[in-house]
Design a protein that fits this description.
Elements: H1 3-24, E1 33-39, H2 47-52, H3 54-57, E2 70-77, H4 87-94, E3 97-99, H5 102-107, E4 117-121, H6 139-153, E5 159-162, H7 169-182, E6 186-189, E7 196-198, E8 209-216, H8 220-235, E9 245-252, H9 254-262, H10 267-276, H11 287-290, E10 295-301, E11 306-311, E12 319-325, E13 330-336, H12 345-359, H13 366-384, E14 390-391
Parallel strand pairs: 1-2, 1-4, 2-3, 4-5, 5-6, 8-11
Antiparallel strand pairs: 7-13, 8-12, 9-10, 9-14, 10-11, 12-13
Helix pairs in contact: 7-13, 8-13
Amino acid sequence: MSAKPALSFTLAALAAMIARASAAEPTNAPPSRNVAAIVTVYYHNSHADLIVSRLLQTDTLDGKGKDSPLKLASLYTDQRKPEKDISRLLAASHRFRVSETIEDALTLGTGRLAVDGVLLIAEHGDYPRTPVGNTRYPKRRFWEEILKVFRASNRVVPVFIDKHLADNWQDAKFIYDSATELKVPIMAGSSVPGTWRRPAADVKRGARLREIVAITYHITEHYGFHALEVVQALAEQRQGGETGIKSVQTITGDAVWRAFDEKTFDTELFDAAWKRLSEPRGGGRPLRQLVREPKLFRLEYADGLRAHVLELNGAAGEWSAAWRYADGREESSLFWTQEGRPAGHFTLLLNGIEQMMLSGKPSWNGERTLLSSGALHGLLISEKEEQRRVETPDLMLHYETSWRWTEPPTPPPMRPWAEQ
């Protein structure tokens, strides 16, 4: 009869010991940061979904992956179509603040900056076109609203801007300069430079480079930008760091095939990049039959490096690049992205964002995306103005990067885009 009370006492004592030990042991949980998300739209598979939803549904977007140390405190959505928007459903299930203004999203209604970081995601949505034909996303408007809160609060926090800094050079430079003036830790750019490379390869740090050739597809302002970021992530590794871009030019149509024939760029590098594509299209038909509207983007750097990006819709559906060192050696790689949910390359992008939000220091240089943004604008001007060579004295920027590509872990299992 005395056994049961004794057992009960033992279990109670053991529970108390475990509780005391747990309280005494330091926690290994990573620090967390509350962030505000400022987005244009929020629907399934939008950039807002592929980035911000990782803070709510783990890095695999299904609640089964790794939790982010970033906690979504508030969300401002600039445009919302009820039939597509998923932000209010997520707010109901995950209990973050839905804000009607950017100021409220950053202050949480307190009148002072009340978050530890900001995600500015202006991609997708119904916005006007610029004179050179790309989309005028409200990045500068968003940024100026953010700056108002920073100035009123006499405090700044890190800001990540998805993809380019802005659709035009003037706004991109304004964002960069004002961030520098107020000492705002700022980072922007593409998910592609940090993605899986097949084979694993990068420009040797401090090596002398002669030329880079990359392949891209789809719409220039959207996917061509990713290719420019790839080129810049490779170029910044070279001897002396980045020296700046002195001119850009867009060549289209038959002039692209003449450039092939006359070898005005390194066609052997093109062949190397082409062979890296995992699924070249067209069943072996000649490239000139497959691509009805080819484009060739040419960048000339201040130190003599040349870069060429070929947009080959109808033949290519991936990004790849090849580069030649000054001694004649070449390397090449496919920049593989997971084209289905959970789009694991966005997790790799988020890892860099998390690092900045936790440390207060950008994970890669803002100058990289400043140059890519300016180069894209110049290339669009060149195409609009009969393929003229555009001098880019504003892009003569020097910087040295501390960022270095590292091979990511194996990508997670992929689901169809339509699945949650």
